[in-house]
Amino acid sequence: MNRRALALGALAVTGALALTACGSDDTGNSNGGDASATAQAGNIDCGDAKGQLQASGSSAQKNAVDAWVKQYTAACKDVQINYNPTGSGAGITAFTQGQTAFAGSDSALKPEEVEASKKVCTDGQGIDLPMVGGPIAVGFNVPGVDTLALDAPTLAKIFDNKITKWNDPAIAKLNSGADLPDLKIQAFHRSDESGTTDNFTKYLKAAAPKDWKYEPGKSWEAEGGQSAQGSSGVAQQVKQTSGAISYFELSYASDGVKTVDIKTEATEPVKATIENATAAIGAAKVVGTGKDLALELDYTPSAEGAYPIVLVTYEIVCDKGNKADTLPATKSFLNYMASEEGQGQLAEAGYAPMPQEIITKVRETVSSLS
Q: What is the mean pLDDT of the chain?
């Protein structure tokens, strides 16, 4: 897939983010008819957008949000967007308590969370809008090893403290010729409730059911290992700890952090790339009802070049009940994210696009928000 196609798809996913400004907390925004509010810069139409949008949640999409906010607020100087990467669980809680305009979550809303959202979405409820896709990279720090292939059963045993040395026969079998050291494995997981953890454990459960006995979820259930806060926290631990391994979004695998190639049913191990994640996300199915666009991901793809450990970040927004003072800014920001200019930033930041048919539905839903 060429880079432009990726960028266009990625952009569409972005669109949902803006959507999320629903049930916003009081920010004292005003919508006076100031002519300056209609200023445009490039393809960014600020419309009547003013005031602040408060949001929190998924740290997976933080790098994408940062890129969008930088460009959008440079053009729309009357709008301030504050996104706090507290983790998916905390983000949903803040949203259902009416503390934020929207939440980012790497897992779709549960039935009890939808019910809780009705308290802040006047005459409506929270819905899932898939905005950002991407691979969950498995980063490693093993001195002398630049390329590493692992499969689901081996990963499950590593993160369940059943394989504890890097020269274990199971790892050696998958990496013929590699000079694996007699070094203790330092496995790190998220300390906070995380949609990344949810998706990573869904992969382990689906692809290695005999070796991963725990139920998938936002909270880490396996014993042993070490923990760190947020995607940036576990990525930093891998970077600075000899023998470390952890899971985080590809956008955090910077500054020389190496990533594992995943052995699937395909002929060759699959690298964690935007293109390979897009191939897997393309098999996702919409399982949400009504305006809800929750997806069912395929964690065991067999196609060549389909990276199996992926996530989709949703923007959690009210279908009805958006506050009148934040709705203009919400739609303006959303329109920017859905534009070619906005989406073009996602591939550069390490994210994968949503399928075109999904993006089309997201845009239709955004236009109907009230």
A: 85
Q: How far apart are CA 277 and CA 66, in angstroms?
A: 22
Domain ranges in the chain are: 3-131+315-368, 136-278
Q: CATH number of the domain at 3-131+315-368, please?
A: 3.40.190.10
Q: How many CB atoms lie within 10 A of CB 179?
A: 10
Distance CA 51, CA 82 (A): 11
Q: Is 60 labelled a binding residue?
A: yes
- Is 264 annotated in a binding site? The answer is no
Range 136-278 classified under CATH 3.40.640.10: no
- Which of the four pLDDT bands, split at 50, 70 and 90, describes residue 86? very high
Is there a binding annotation on residue 9?
no
78 labeled binding residue: no
Are residues 139 and 238 in contact, defined by beta-carbon separation less than 8 angstroms?
yes
Is 58 annotated as ligand-binding?
yes
Asked if residue 231 belongs to a known ligand binding site, the reply is no
Per-residue pLDDT at 350: 79
Q: Which of 1-10, 76-85, 205-214 is least confident?
A: 1-10
pTM beyond 0.85: the answer is no
Task: Give yes or no on whether 3-131+315-368 and 136-278 have one common fold.
Answer: yes
